Amino acid sequence: MDKKNYDLAVELRHELHAHPELSNQEVWTKQHLIDFLKEHTKLEIVDRGRWFYAVYRAKNAKENIAFRADFDALPIDENLDIPYNSKIKGVSHKCGHDGHAAALAGLALEVDQKGADKNVFFLFQHAEEIGAGAKEAAVFIKENNIDEIFAFHNMNVGPFKSVNVKDGTVNCASKGMVIHMEGAPSHASEPERGKNPSFAIAKIIDSIPDLINDKKNKGLVLCTVVQVDIGERAFGVSAGRGDLLLTIRALYENELMALQKNLEDIAKDQAGKYGLKVSFEYYDEFPETANYKESSDKIRKVAKEKDFELIELKEAFRGSDDFGHFLKETKGAYCYLGNGEDYSDVHTFEYDFRNELIEVAVDLFVGIIEL
To answer: Peptidase M20 dimerisation domain location, by residue (predicted)?
Structure first.
Protein backbone atom coordinates (compact mmCIF):
# COMPACT_ATOMS: atom_id res chain seq x y z
CA MET A 1 0.00 0.00 0.00
CA ASP A 2 1.29 3.43 -0.90
CA LYS A 3 2.55 5.19 2.25
CA LYS A 4 0.70 8.42 1.49
CA ASN A 5 -2.54 6.49 1.09
CA TYR A 6 -1.87 4.61 4.31
CA ASP A 7 -1.26 7.84 6.22
CA LEU A 8 -4.48 9.34 4.84
CA ALA A 9 -6.43 6.22 5.82
CA VAL A 10 -5.03 6.27 9.36
CA GLU A 11 -5.87 9.94 9.72
CA LEU A 12 -9.38 9.18 8.49
CA ARG A 13 -9.75 6.38 11.02
CA HIS A 14 -8.79 8.68 13.86
CA GLU A 15 -11.36 11.23 12.69
CA LEU A 16 -14.06 8.56 12.53
CA HIS A 17 -13.03 7.25 15.93
CA ALA A 18 -13.40 10.69 17.49
CA HIS A 19 -16.93 11.12 16.10
CA PRO A 20 -18.69 7.75 16.63
CA GLU A 21 -22.39 7.35 15.88
CA LEU A 22 -24.81 4.58 16.79
CA SER A 23 -26.63 2.39 14.27
CA ASN A 24 -29.01 4.30 11.99
CA GLN A 25 -27.64 7.60 13.32
CA GLU A 26 -24.43 7.74 11.26
CA VAL A 27 -25.11 11.09 9.56
CA TRP A 28 -21.73 12.75 10.21
CA THR A 29 -19.84 9.49 9.58
CA LYS A 30 -21.42 8.87 6.20
CA GLN A 31 -20.92 12.44 5.01
CA HIS A 32 -17.32 12.54 6.22
CA LEU A 33 -16.53 9.39 4.25
CA ILE A 34 -18.19 10.82 1.14
CA ASP A 35 -16.25 14.07 1.52
CA PHE A 36 -13.00 12.13 1.91
CA LEU A 37 -13.58 10.17 -1.30
CA LYS A 38 -14.64 13.27 -3.22
CA GLU A 39 -11.50 15.09 -2.10
CA HIS A 40 -9.01 12.30 -2.79
CA THR A 41 -10.51 10.28 -5.67
CA LYS A 42 -12.40 10.68 -8.95
CA LEU A 43 -14.75 7.82 -8.12
CA GLU A 44 -18.47 7.96 -8.79
CA ILE A 45 -20.43 8.31 -5.52
CA VAL A 46 -23.94 6.90 -5.17
CA ASP A 47 -25.78 8.12 -2.06
CA ARG A 48 -28.55 5.79 -0.89
CA GLY A 49 -29.64 7.61 2.25
CA ARG A 50 -28.24 5.77 5.26
CA TRP A 51 -25.59 4.02 3.16
CA PHE A 52 -23.62 4.73 0.01
CA TYR A 53 -21.13 3.27 -2.41
CA ALA A 54 -18.34 4.46 -4.67
CA VAL A 55 -17.52 2.95 -8.07
CA TYR A 56 -14.40 2.55 -10.16
CA ARG A 57 -15.41 1.71 -13.73
CA ALA A 58 -12.90 -0.06 -15.96
CA LYS A 59 -12.94 -0.05 -19.75
CA ASN A 60 -14.38 -3.24 -21.22
CA ALA A 61 -14.84 -4.73 -17.74
CA LYS A 62 -16.44 -8.17 -17.67
CA GLU A 63 -16.75 -8.47 -13.90
CA ASN A 64 -18.27 -6.45 -11.06
CA ILE A 65 -16.53 -7.01 -7.74
CA ALA A 66 -17.51 -5.39 -4.45
CA PHE A 67 -15.99 -4.78 -1.03
CA ARG A 68 -18.02 -3.78 2.01
CA ALA A 69 -17.23 -1.95 5.25
CA ASP A 70 -19.53 -1.09 8.15
CA PHE A 71 -19.27 2.26 9.96
CA ASP A 72 -21.53 2.29 13.05
CA ALA A 73 -20.30 2.43 16.66
CA LEU A 74 -21.36 0.95 20.01
CA PRO A 75 -23.06 2.34 23.15
CA ILE A 76 -19.87 1.97 25.20
CA ASP A 77 -17.96 4.74 26.98
CA GLU A 78 -14.47 5.61 25.76
CA ASN A 79 -11.96 5.44 28.59
CA LEU A 80 -8.70 5.26 26.65
CA ASP A 81 -6.22 8.11 26.90
CA ILE A 82 -5.60 8.59 23.17
CA PRO A 83 -5.39 11.81 21.11
CA TYR A 84 -8.40 10.80 18.99
CA ASN A 85 -10.70 9.50 21.73
CA SER A 86 -14.45 9.70 21.34
CA LYS A 87 -16.03 13.13 21.67
CA ILE A 88 -19.48 11.56 22.12
CA LYS A 89 -20.37 10.52 25.66
CA GLY A 90 -21.43 6.90 25.94
CA VAL A 91 -20.57 6.06 22.32
CA SER A 92 -17.31 4.68 20.90
CA HIS A 93 -15.81 2.56 18.13
CA LYS A 94 -15.15 -0.53 20.24
CA CYS A 95 -15.66 -2.98 17.40
CA GLY A 96 -13.28 -1.50 14.85
CA HIS A 97 -15.79 -0.30 12.29
CA ASP A 98 -13.78 2.93 12.10
CA GLY A 99 -10.88 0.78 10.89
CA HIS A 100 -13.05 -1.18 8.47
CA ALA A 101 -14.34 2.02 6.86
CA ALA A 102 -10.87 3.59 6.74
CA ALA A 103 -9.44 0.46 5.13
CA LEU A 104 -12.15 0.48 2.44
CA ALA A 105 -11.45 4.15 1.79
CA GLY A 106 -7.75 3.30 1.54
CA LEU A 107 -8.59 0.58 -0.98
CA ALA A 108 -10.56 3.15 -2.97
CA LEU A 109 -7.50 5.41 -3.07
CA GLU A 110 -5.30 2.60 -4.39
CA VAL A 111 -7.76 1.49 -7.08
CA ASP A 112 -8.51 5.05 -8.18
CA GLN A 113 -4.81 5.77 -8.62
CA LYS A 114 -3.58 2.46 -10.03
CA GLY A 115 -6.62 1.26 -11.94
CA ALA A 116 -8.14 -2.19 -12.35
CA ASP A 117 -9.49 -4.44 -15.11
CA LYS A 118 -12.78 -4.93 -13.23
CA ASN A 119 -15.55 -2.60 -12.12
CA VAL A 120 -14.87 -2.19 -8.39
CA PHE A 121 -17.61 -1.18 -5.95
CA PHE A 122 -16.84 0.16 -2.48
CA LEU A 123 -19.91 -0.29 -0.27
CA PHE A 124 -20.06 1.70 2.98
CA GLN A 125 -22.83 0.29 5.18
CA HIS A 126 -24.67 1.50 8.27
CA ALA A 127 -26.23 -0.33 11.23
CA GLU A 128 -24.29 -3.59 11.27
CA GLU A 129 -24.38 -3.83 15.05
CA ILE A 130 -28.16 -4.27 15.09
CA GLY A 131 -28.37 -6.46 11.99
CA ALA A 132 -30.34 -3.92 9.96
CA GLY A 133 -27.82 -2.31 7.62
CA ALA A 134 -26.99 -5.13 5.22
CA LYS A 135 -30.62 -6.19 5.02
CA GLU A 136 -31.45 -2.72 3.73
CA ALA A 137 -28.39 -2.41 1.50
CA ALA A 138 -28.63 -5.90 -0.05
CA VAL A 139 -30.51 -4.41 -3.02
CA PHE A 140 -27.08 -3.10 -4.05
CA ILE A 141 -26.13 -6.59 -5.28
CA LYS A 142 -28.84 -7.05 -7.93
CA GLU A 143 -29.00 -3.39 -8.88
CA ASN A 144 -25.31 -3.50 -9.85
CA ASN A 145 -25.05 -7.11 -11.00
CA ILE A 146 -22.32 -7.79 -8.44
CA ASP A 147 -20.51 -11.01 -9.25
CA GLU A 148 -18.63 -11.34 -5.96
CA ILE A 149 -18.35 -9.47 -2.65
CA PHE A 150 -15.74 -9.51 0.12
CA ALA A 151 -15.34 -8.05 3.59
CA PHE A 152 -13.20 -8.47 6.68
CA HIS A 153 -13.43 -8.05 10.44
CA ASN A 154 -10.65 -7.62 12.94
CA MET A 155 -10.68 -10.22 15.71
CA ASN A 156 -8.51 -11.83 18.36
CA VAL A 157 -7.80 -14.92 16.32
CA GLY A 158 -4.32 -16.01 15.40
CA PRO A 159 -1.21 -13.81 15.44
CA PHE A 160 -1.23 -10.11 14.61
CA LYS A 161 -1.84 -9.47 10.88
CA SER A 162 -2.80 -13.09 10.21
CA VAL A 163 -5.53 -13.85 7.66
CA ASN A 164 -8.14 -16.24 9.02
CA VAL A 165 -10.60 -17.95 6.70
CA LYS A 166 -13.14 -20.76 6.58
CA ASP A 167 -15.41 -22.33 3.98
CA GLY A 168 -19.14 -22.49 4.69
CA THR A 169 -20.66 -20.90 7.77
CA VAL A 170 -18.23 -18.48 9.42
CA ASN A 171 -20.73 -16.60 11.64
CA CYS A 172 -23.81 -17.94 13.38
CA ALA A 173 -27.35 -16.72 12.77
CA SER A 174 -28.98 -15.03 15.76
CA LYS A 175 -31.81 -12.80 16.94
CA GLY A 176 -33.18 -11.24 20.08
CA MET A 177 -36.52 -12.72 21.16
CA VAL A 178 -39.01 -11.20 23.60
CA ILE A 179 -41.79 -13.37 25.00
CA HIS A 180 -44.43 -11.10 26.55
CA MET A 181 -47.05 -12.59 28.83
CA GLU A 182 -50.06 -10.64 30.06
CA GLY A 183 -52.22 -11.86 32.93
CA ALA A 184 -53.87 -9.99 35.77
CA PRO A 185 -52.44 -8.75 39.09
CA SER A 186 -53.95 -9.49 42.48
CA HIS A 187 -53.16 -8.96 46.15
CA ALA A 188 -50.14 -11.04 47.11
CA SER A 189 -52.22 -12.73 49.83
CA GLU A 190 -54.69 -13.94 47.20
CA PRO A 191 -52.64 -15.03 44.19
CA GLU A 192 -55.43 -17.36 43.08
CA ARG A 193 -57.52 -14.30 42.17
CA GLY A 194 -54.97 -13.12 39.60
CA LYS A 195 -53.15 -14.57 36.62
CA ASN A 196 -49.43 -14.55 37.37
CA PRO A 197 -47.07 -15.31 34.45
CA SER A 198 -44.15 -16.33 36.70
CA PHE A 199 -44.69 -20.08 36.54
CA ALA A 200 -45.27 -20.06 32.77
CA ILE A 201 -42.05 -18.10 32.20
CA ALA A 202 -40.20 -20.42 34.58
CA LYS A 203 -41.40 -23.43 32.56
CA ILE A 204 -40.11 -21.84 29.34
CA ILE A 205 -36.70 -21.24 30.90
CA ASP A 206 -36.67 -24.79 32.24
CA SER A 207 -37.26 -26.15 28.72
CA ILE A 208 -34.17 -24.46 27.22
CA PRO A 209 -31.50 -27.10 28.04
CA ASP A 210 -33.49 -29.78 26.22
CA LEU A 211 -34.11 -27.56 23.18
CA ILE A 212 -30.41 -26.78 22.71
CA ASN A 213 -29.15 -30.30 23.43
CA ASP A 214 -26.38 -30.99 20.93
CA LYS A 215 -27.69 -34.52 20.42
CA LYS A 216 -30.88 -33.06 18.94
CA ASN A 217 -29.23 -30.55 16.61
CA LYS A 218 -26.91 -30.83 13.64
CA GLY A 219 -24.86 -27.77 14.61
CA LEU A 220 -24.38 -25.41 17.52
CA VAL A 221 -27.66 -24.10 18.98
CA LEU A 222 -27.75 -21.65 21.89
CA CYS A 223 -30.46 -19.88 23.86
CA THR A 224 -29.22 -17.27 26.33
CA VAL A 225 -31.52 -15.79 28.98
CA VAL A 226 -30.82 -12.06 28.80
CA GLN A 227 -33.47 -10.70 31.16
CA VAL A 228 -36.48 -11.81 33.16
CA ASP A 229 -38.83 -8.94 33.98
CA ILE A 230 -41.92 -10.02 35.91
CA GLY A 231 -44.35 -7.86 37.90
CA GLU A 232 -43.55 -4.84 40.04
CA ARG A 233 -41.20 -4.32 42.99
CA ALA A 234 -44.08 -4.45 45.48
CA PHE A 235 -44.43 -7.26 48.01
CA GLY A 236 -48.17 -6.75 48.25
CA VAL A 237 -48.86 -7.47 44.58
CA SER A 238 -48.91 -10.77 42.71
CA ALA A 239 -47.44 -10.15 39.24
CA GLY A 240 -49.78 -9.65 36.31
CA ARG A 241 -47.31 -9.28 33.46
CA GLY A 242 -43.87 -10.49 32.47
CA ASP A 243 -41.25 -10.36 29.73
CA LEU A 244 -38.63 -13.00 28.99
CA LEU A 245 -35.76 -11.74 26.83
CA LEU A 246 -33.66 -14.33 25.04
CA THR A 247 -30.86 -14.32 22.50
CA ILE A 248 -31.28 -17.33 20.27
CA ARG A 249 -28.37 -18.42 18.10
CA ALA A 250 -27.50 -21.29 15.76
CA LEU A 251 -24.89 -22.34 13.26
CA TYR A 252 -27.62 -22.97 10.70
CA GLU A 253 -30.61 -20.74 10.06
CA ASN A 254 -33.03 -23.65 9.76
CA GLU A 255 -32.13 -24.76 13.28
CA LEU A 256 -32.49 -21.20 14.54
CA MET A 257 -36.01 -21.11 13.12
CA ALA A 258 -36.77 -24.51 14.65
CA LEU A 259 -35.63 -23.23 18.06
CA GLN A 260 -37.79 -20.13 17.66
CA LYS A 261 -40.86 -22.20 16.78
CA ASN A 262 -40.30 -24.57 19.70
CA LEU A 263 -40.04 -21.66 22.13
CA GLU A 264 -43.18 -20.07 20.69
CA ASP A 265 -45.09 -23.35 20.95
CA ILE A 266 -44.03 -23.88 24.57
CA ALA A 267 -44.94 -20.27 25.42
CA LYS A 268 -48.38 -20.63 23.82
CA ASP A 269 -48.98 -23.91 25.65
CA GLN A 270 -48.00 -22.42 29.02
CA ALA A 271 -50.07 -19.30 28.37
CA GLY A 272 -53.08 -21.51 27.75
CA LYS A 273 -52.55 -23.43 30.98
CA TYR A 274 -52.33 -20.27 33.10
CA GLY A 275 -54.93 -18.17 31.26
CA LEU A 276 -52.42 -15.66 29.88
CA LYS A 277 -52.10 -13.71 26.67
CA VAL A 278 -48.78 -14.21 24.89
CA SER A 279 -47.04 -12.23 22.15
CA PHE A 280 -43.58 -12.19 20.58
CA GLU A 281 -41.15 -9.53 19.36
CA TYR A 282 -37.83 -9.91 17.54
CA TYR A 283 -34.77 -7.65 17.42
CA ASP A 284 -31.21 -7.61 16.02
CA GLU A 285 -31.89 -10.34 13.48
CA PHE A 286 -28.77 -11.71 11.77
CA PRO A 287 -28.57 -14.41 9.09
CA GLU A 288 -25.81 -16.98 9.06
CA THR A 289 -22.75 -15.81 7.13
CA ALA A 290 -21.80 -18.65 4.79
CA ASN A 291 -18.69 -18.27 2.62
CA TYR A 292 -18.41 -19.63 -0.89
CA LYS A 293 -15.37 -21.88 -1.22
CA GLU A 294 -14.45 -20.33 -4.59
CA SER A 295 -14.26 -16.93 -2.91
CA SER A 296 -12.50 -18.20 0.22
CA ASP A 297 -9.90 -19.81 -2.03
CA LYS A 298 -9.13 -16.40 -3.55
CA ILE A 299 -8.41 -15.06 -0.07
CA ARG A 300 -6.14 -18.04 0.57
CA LYS A 301 -4.28 -17.59 -2.72
CA VAL A 302 -3.60 -13.89 -2.20
CA ALA A 303 -2.65 -14.33 1.46
CA LYS A 304 0.00 -16.86 0.44
CA GLU A 305 1.26 -14.67 -2.39
CA LYS A 306 1.58 -11.70 -0.02
CA ASP A 307 3.27 -13.83 2.67
CA PHE A 308 0.53 -13.20 5.21
CA GLU A 309 0.17 -15.89 7.83
CA LEU A 310 -2.87 -17.91 6.70
CA ILE A 311 -4.95 -19.72 9.30
CA GLU A 312 -7.85 -22.08 8.68
CA LEU A 313 -10.60 -21.49 11.22
CA LYS A 314 -11.77 -24.78 12.71
CA GLU A 315 -15.23 -23.55 13.62
CA ALA A 316 -17.56 -20.64 13.03
CA PHE A 317 -17.74 -17.65 15.34
CA ARG A 318 -20.71 -17.66 17.66
CA GLY A 319 -21.08 -13.93 17.13
CA SER A 320 -23.11 -12.74 14.15
CA ASP A 321 -22.57 -10.34 11.26
CA ASP A 322 -25.16 -9.09 8.80
CA PHE A 323 -22.79 -9.63 5.84
CA GLY A 324 -24.69 -12.88 5.33
CA HIS A 325 -27.48 -10.92 3.64
CA PHE A 326 -25.14 -10.14 0.72
CA LEU A 327 -24.08 -13.78 0.43
CA LYS A 328 -27.72 -14.74 -0.11
CA GLU A 329 -27.63 -12.61 -3.28
CA THR A 330 -24.21 -13.43 -4.76
CA LYS A 331 -21.03 -15.36 -4.07
CA GLY A 332 -18.34 -13.97 -1.79
CA ALA A 333 -16.44 -14.47 1.44
CA TYR A 334 -15.81 -12.91 4.83
CA CYS A 335 -12.43 -13.22 6.53
CA TYR A 336 -10.84 -12.19 9.83
CA LEU A 337 -7.61 -10.29 10.31
CA GLY A 338 -5.81 -11.11 13.53
CA ASN A 339 -5.48 -8.47 16.23
CA GLY A 340 -3.08 -10.76 18.06
CA GLU A 341 -4.16 -13.41 20.51
CA ASP A 342 -3.38 -11.32 23.61
CA TYR A 343 -4.89 -8.07 22.35
CA SER A 344 -7.97 -6.55 23.99
CA ASP A 345 -11.23 -8.08 22.76
CA VAL A 346 -13.69 -6.13 20.67
CA HIS A 347 -16.66 -4.70 22.61
CA THR A 348 -14.46 -4.00 25.66
CA PHE A 349 -13.31 -0.71 27.20
CA GLU A 350 -9.64 -1.39 26.39
CA TYR A 351 -10.09 -2.13 22.69
CA ASP A 352 -8.88 0.12 19.87
CA PHE A 353 -8.49 -0.87 16.20
CA ARG A 354 -4.87 -1.52 15.22
CA ASN A 355 -3.92 0.80 12.36
CA GLU A 356 -1.55 -1.69 10.75
CA LEU A 357 -4.51 -3.88 9.78
CA ILE A 358 -5.55 -1.21 7.28
CA GLU A 359 -2.53 -2.04 5.13
CA VAL A 360 -3.12 -5.78 5.45
CA ALA A 361 -6.75 -5.42 4.35
CA VAL A 362 -5.92 -3.13 1.44
CA ASP A 363 -3.09 -5.32 0.14
CA LEU A 364 -5.27 -8.43 0.48
CA PHE A 365 -8.18 -6.88 -1.41
CA VAL A 366 -5.96 -5.35 -4.11
CA GLY A 367 -4.59 -8.85 -4.67
CA ILE A 368 -8.12 -10.25 -5.05
CA ILE A 369 -8.98 -7.52 -7.58
CA GLU A 370 -5.87 -8.42 -9.59
CA LEU A 371 -6.68 -12.16 -9.81
So the answer is: 174-274
Query: For residues 15 and 84, is the Cβ–Cβ distance under 8 A?
Result: yes
CA distance 318 to 334: 15
Annotated binding-site positions: 95, 97, 129, 153, 347
Has this prediction a pTM greater than 0.70? yes
Q: Where are the domains of the chain?
A: 3-171+288-370, 173-285
Separation between Cα atoms, residue 124 and residue 2, nearest integer Å? 22
Dihedral, CA of residue 77, residue 14, residue 80 and residue 156, to nearest 10:
90
Residue by residue, pLDDT tens for the chain (371 residues) are 999 999 999 999 999 999 999 999 999 999 999 999 999 999 999 999 999 999 999 999 999 999 999 999 999 999 999 999 999 999 999 999 999 999 999 999 999 999 999 999 999 999 999 999 999 999 999 999 999 999 999 999 889 999 999 999 999 999 999 999 999 999 999 999 999 999 999 999 999 999 999 999 999 999 999 999 999 999 999 999 999 999 999 999 999 999 999 999 999 999 999 999 999 999 999 999 999 999 999 999 999 999 999 999 999 999 999 999 999 999 999 999 999 989 999 999 999 999 999 999 999 999 999 99
**Known binding residues for Mn(2+):** 95, 97, 129, 153, 347
Name which CATH class applies to 173-285. alpha beta
